[in-house]
Design a protein that fits this description.
119 residues; mainly beta; two-stranded antiparallel ribbon; extended
């Protein structure tokens, strides 16, 4: 089970500070997790400019130019945000028994280590 998943709220914990033009301290939702490369794409973090060749669509509108979008950052540079305290925390796993329709089932759950709240 992965520690960080798509849709989680994370905070950048390393790199240059925002005063120096970096992204440390910024929070955002995870857009995509690149498991094989150990990287995540976070909304509003690590913007890069990309030059796209100018072309035309079938209707004649221009495409291309300079676009900005989020680039992936290493998964070790982000930490999950605790829903209770809104500060970065580590993630743990625990097994809970859940009863549904009279049947007990064991489920593996992620939780924030600082507050103990389920994620």
């Amino acid at each position: 089970m992965a520690k960080i998943k798509k849709g989680d709220l994370v905070q950048v914990i390393s790199g240059a500070t925002q005063a120096r033009g970096g992204d440390r301290g910024k929070q955002g939702k995870v857009i995509e997790v690149l498991v094989e490369r150990n990287r995540v794409v976070v909304e509003g973090v690590n913007y890069v400019t990309k030059h796209v060749k100018v072309g035309q669509t079938q209707r004649g509108t221009k495409t291309g130019g300079i676009e900005t979008h989020e680039a992936p950052i290493h998964i070790s540079n982000v930490a999950l945000v605790d829903p209770k305290t809104k500060k970065p925390t580590r993630v743990g796993h625990k097994v809970e028994t859940v009863e549904k329709d009279g049947v007990k089932k064991q489920v593996r759950v992620r939780y924030a280590k600082k507050s103990g709240e389920n994620l």
